[in-house]
Specification:
The protein has 11 helices and 5 strands; from the N terminus they run H-H-H-E-E-H-E-E-E-H-H-H-H-H-H-H. The chain is an alpha+beta fold. The protein has a 5-stranded mixed β-sheet with strand order 1-2-3-5-4. A hairpin with a 7-residue loop joins strand 4 and strand 5. Helix 5 packs across helix 9.
């Protein structure tokens, strides 16, 4: 940025100091007026460049140590603070900017304000392509993180499925409109691992409908195992009619997100219980409106 400023200064001042016949014929007063005009133009352009630089410095976070939760455990390539959706256009890295622009394009407008931090991570050790998590200390807003391997084609079908899956995790903790929250509710041990949804949240109702106490105990064991994804895959192989995918068999959150994905994209489902899980979402007018909005964006 300094180099660019310097070149503009040289170009403008060059117009003043290169001797020409026109300059030789001007009076001293005219010469000074021209010089002042050029200096003023130069100052204005410098101000524009400084504002652009300040904007880019504001959006980029170069201190991964400030991250927490799962974000702090991955190899962070870049992290961006997003006070509002418009800041995405100021992300300096073109590939990062394109991906998060597409993410907001697919997110329903009601959820644009939920994402306040965008993260790109790398490394061969990561076992997932993206994740979302709430931002401490108040946990009112969310981070959206994506592996750099997913950045080649932000508009691909694979990325559309990934973005909708992650959106589902935000939807899961929303309270169902018109459903009152009980005066008291017990949080089962499994949900205490990541945080209990409110009793009238979509996830809580989904889990109560489709996950027995034994299922939740299994999910808790998987959460503490060395290979939770492998455990879920093995369970899926003998319970394919219950889940839309092997990933869904891991825990109620992923079951909700995968079933939501199949619902939004009208993906074919085999298995009676798996079909009921997909149909679960269609009973709610709010979720039907989300589906309609996303379908327009695809």
């Amino acid at each position: 940025m300094k180099k660019r400023t310097f070149l503009i200064a040289v170009a403008l001042l060059g117009c003043v100091f290169v001797p020409t016949a026109t300059h030789a014929q001007t009076t001293d007063a005219a010469y000074r007026a021209l010089l002042l005009q050029l200096i003023e133009q130069l100052q204005q352009q410098i101000a524009v460049l400084q504002a652009e630089l300040a904007s880019r410095q504001q959006v980029e976070v170069e201190a991964p140590q400030q991250l927490s939760g799962l974000s702090a455990t991955v190899d962070v390539v870049a992290a961006y603070e997003l006070p509002d959706q418009s800041v995405v256009t100021s992300i300096p890295n073109a590939a990062h900017r394109a991906y998060f622009t597409q993410m907001f394009a697919l997110f329903p407008s009601a959820y644009d304000s939920f994402i306040k931090r965008a993260i790109v991570f790398g490394g061969d050790e990561a076992t997932f392509d993206a994740f979302v998590e709430t931002i401490p200390p108040r946990h009112e807003y969310w981070s959206y993180a994506v592996h750099e391997d997913m950045l080649d084609d932000p508009t691909s079908e694979a990325n559309a499925e990934l973005i909708i899956h992650e959106l589902a995790h935000l939807v899961a903790y929303e309270e169902i409109p018109g459903v009152a929250k009980p005066a008291s509710a017990h949080c089962v041990d499994y949900f205490e691992i990541h945080g209990c949804p409110k009793a009238n949240a979509y996830l809580a109702v989904f889990a109560k409908t489709f996950w027995s106490s034994a299922d939740l105990d299994r999910a808790e064991r998987y959460a503490h195992s060395d290979d939770p994804f492998g455990s879920g895959y093995d369970y899926y192989q003998i319970h394919k009619s219950t889940f839309v995918s092997d990933y869904a068999a891991q825990n109620p959150e992923e079951d909700f997100a995968e079933s939501f994905l199949f619902y939004i994209l009208n993906k074919p489902v085999s298995g009676a219980i798996a079909s009921k899980k997909v149909d679960f979402f269609d009973q709610y007018a709010y979720l039907r409106s989300i589906k309609n909005e996303i379908e327009v964006s695809l």
